[in-house]
Each structure stands twice: as C-alpha cells, then as structure tokens.
UniProtKB/TrEMBL annotation:
Protein name, as recorded: Cobalamin-binding protein
Domain of life (superkingdom): Archaea
Keyword Transit peptide: no
Gene source species: Halobellus rarus
One Pfam family here: Peripla_BP_2
Sequence ranges assigned to domain Fe/B12 periplasmic-binding in this UniProt record: 31-282
UniProt keywords, alphabetically: Signal
Keyword Signal: yes
Chain intervals for the UniProt region annotation (Disordered): 1-22, 152-172
Length: 282
C-alpha cells in the first residue's frame, strides 16, 4: 500500500522516528519484520533483505506473512522474534505505538516529499545498522534523478530551438491516485512529474492527495493523464478516462501503482518511466 493518498505530513522527513535511528555504530540487526511494503522494498534495494524475516501480504519479498498492512497478526510477529519492526505512513501510527507498548523497537517514517523519501532511505539504513548502504542508495537515487532532469531540460531545449516550444513547453500532467471519486495524487508526485519534465498544477509538493472536480482538470487541459490507482497495480482499463467524457485531449497511461505510490527506490523507477512517456510524446 504505502499510498500517497493517506499521508498527511510535510517538512524534512515528516514524522520520521526510530528507536534505532541513531545507532550508526551498532552492529546490524539480524531479524527485521517489515509491516510496510515501502520499507521492504527499500531494505531489499539496500542489499539487506536477508535480515527481513517477516512481511505483510502486500509485500513482494518472499518471507513469512504476518498479516495485512493495517491488521498485523501480533502472535505471528512475536513468533518471529524481531530485533526491529518497520512501519510507515500516518495510518500505521497506532500500530507503531502499539508495538512499542509491547516492547518492540520500531523504525517509523512518514515521507511526504521527494526529499523526505530519500531521507527515509537513510533513516531505515541507520535503523538496521547499515548506514553506508543507505548512503549508497541515496547517492544512486540522486544520480538517477539528475540524469532524468538533464534529459528533460534537453527535451525542452530541442523544442525551443525548433520553434515548437510555447512559453512553458513542459507538458501538463494529471496523476490520478484513486478513481471513485477521482483523486489527484499529492505528496511526492508533483515533484516526480517535475523531475520527469512535466508540469503538475493540481497539488503542491508535499500536499495531501485530494478529490478533484472535472472542471479543474478540464481547465488545466492536461497533455497526459497518468492512472496509478492505489492497490490496483496496473489493472485499470485505460478507457476509464474516456468513459468520463471529460473535455480534454490527453494521452492516457496506466502504470503499476507502486511506481508512483510507494515511497521506496521504486519511485525512482516511476520517475524514469514518466520521463520515457514524455519523451515518446515529444
């Protein structure tokens, strides 16, 4: 899950806290239970997935399942005897607090912006005792983002030199995180679109995802509609937008929702995917 639709915090790594966040010089933990798909994906990308001994039903790592994202089975979790439990998002705050009352060390993050997401990589790495792995992951993400931005600027320059560029040649992009009712994606998505070379006039960076009226979408006249409905993967019919009879002329793209909804290294994959879509359309 880890949906941007649920996050409601901003600032510098909003809501980040960890009982082990300062244990940089401590030995790495040996047993981690991850109750957040984003944490599972991030730990795997760091190369420390072997330490993960339990996950939720929504995680892709093949490990014993300890329940759902919002309904973990505490008996199963106890059987795994973790040194650390990872949670994320505002909707898991009560779970975090419950776990701490039960005596568990918990690393909890609530990223709201793109910079927060990168900061959460470092927070998780410190929590598991592998700060260098987090540093490498952050450096790799920044390098990839810089390459995407450079490519986007090159695309703008080519359009301007050819005389095809308007005052602002960036394509307008509407990203939809939920369909009933339609919800414009917030949090890190505006920055993801900007990094990929687009404009996102539907939400400020770090702002909460919100229901949006068709009139606002039509007034923005998007060039691209990106559908990434929470929990649906890429199992959304692209003609969904056409069936709404909106007065827009936009290319419609359906993405696996993890590419934009999950605050993990997968988000960097999503930004690169957006850039490719914009490249193909230019």
């Amino acid at each position: 899950m880890d949906s941007s639709r649920t996050a409601d915090t901003g600032g510098s790594l909003a809501g980040a806290d960890s009982a082990r966040s300062e244990r940089v010089d401590a030995a790495p933990v040996e047993r981690v239970v991850s109750l957040a798909p984003s944490a599972t994906a991030t730990l795997s990308a760091m190369g420390v997935g072997d330490a993960v001994v339990g996950v939720t039903a929504h995680c892709t790592l093949d490990r014993p399942v300890v329940g759902g994202w919002l309904n973990p089975d505490y008996d199963r979790l106890a059987d795994l005897d973790p040194d650390l439990v990872c949670t994320a998002d505002a909707l898991q705050v009560e779970i975090r607090d419950d776990l701490r009352e039960r005596g568990y060390d918990v690393c909890h993050v609530e990223p709201a912006t793109l910079e927060d997401v990168l900061g959460s990589f470092a927070t998780l790495a410190r929590a598991v005792g592998w700060p260098e792995a987090g540093d490498r992951l952050v450096a790799d993400a920044r390098e990839r983002l810089a390459a995407v931005r450079e490519r986007a600027e090159g695309r703008r320059s080519v359009r301007a030199e050819s005389g095809s560029g308007e005052e602002n040649p960036r394509p307008v992009v509407y990203c939809e995180e939920w369909g009933d009712p339609p919800m414009a994606a917030g949090n890190w998505v505006p920055e993801a679109v900007e990094a990929a070379g687009g404009r996102y006039p539907f939400c400020d960076p770090g702002g909460r995802s919100h229901e949006i009226a068709r009139e606002r979408i039509e007034a923005a006249d998007p060039d691209h509609v990106v559908v990434h409905h929470c929990g649906r993967g890429d199992r959304v019919a692209p003609d969904l937008i056409e069936e709404r009879d909106w007065d827009i002329d936009a290319a419609v793209h359906v993405l696996d929702d993890d590419l934009l909804n999950q605050p993990s290294p997968t988000l960097i994959d999503g930004i690169e995917t957006l850039a490719e879509l914009f490249d193909d359309a230019s």
